[in-house]
Amino acid sequence: MDEFLKTLLSKLGEFASTAGLRLVGALLILLVGFKLCKWLLKLIKRTKAFAKLEVGVQTFLASFLGIVLKIMIVLSAISLLGVPMTNFVALLASAGVAIGASLQGSLSNLAGGIMILMFKPFVIGDYIDSAEGSGTVTEITILYTILTTPDNRRIVIPNGAISNEAITNYSYHDLRRLDLSVCVAYDSDVETVKRLLTQTAREHSMVLSEPEAPFCRLAEHGESSLKFALRVWVKNVDYWQVNFDLKESIKSVLDENGIEIPYPQIDVHLDK
Fold first, then answer.
1. Which of 168, 97, 99, 105 has the alpha carbon at shortest distance from 132?
2. pLDDT of 66 strictly over 70
3. CA 158/CA 132 separation, integer angstroms
4. Residues 163-219: pLDDT tens digits?
5. Stated pTM of the model
């Protein structure tokens, strides 16, 4: 029994002086390394060169650098444990093939994120419309694009999906054309209606005269009304304000001038 205890203590001593120290060192590398990783990322984010980048590029780079640094820290810890790096790299390569096959979607998202940052179909702050949803772009991460809807819902879209579909970017241009359809009764005077609608648009302080002055023409003979098209140019940021203002003003102007805004009607003729 004494001999067994001596052997056990000897083995424990050997373990503590070799593998034990390596294990403690590996744990220290992980703990200290991850803290240094956080500190380094904060330091990079504060640099002037990083601040000059677009917000979307900043988010993507920060996410990418964080992953790369953490992988390097883990590899350093594994190396300290005595695992041969050649064998480990070979194992990673074999695992990479299997993981790559199972993570095709994630790799597609990574490639999509790079494409978005390179070709810039949209940037952070743009309001876009896609098959997956509409909203303001708040983040472009390494794998996902995040939108916030006007009613404050959060939409997370894979970069692979959004980079391979048609996207409408409402914020790309500074100016935007507002198209309104106004219906009036058939007995209304066309020239009078055109004059009133055009005058109402011109009097709005946010309606622009360039690249085109307010335009109004009779667009369609509807089933129950004459439909006029009113087109005005506005700054992108003023679009919805002008949209609501003009609709309210047009209703008041038509009422003041005795022009009826009709509702659908059906004439029924009864034969005796």
1. 168
2. yes
3. 9
4. 888 899 999 999 999 999 999 999 999 999 999 999 999 999 999 998 999 999 999
5. 0.61
The CA distance from 260 to 186, in Å, is 9
CB 272 within 8 A of CB 208: no
Q: How far is CA 235 from CA 155, 178, 205, 240, 241, in A?
A: 27, 10, 11, 10, 10
Task: Determine the residue type at 248.
Answer: E
Q: Which domains does the chain have, with CATH numbers?
A: 20-102 (1.10.287), 112-169 (2.30.30.60), 175-256 (3.30.70.100)
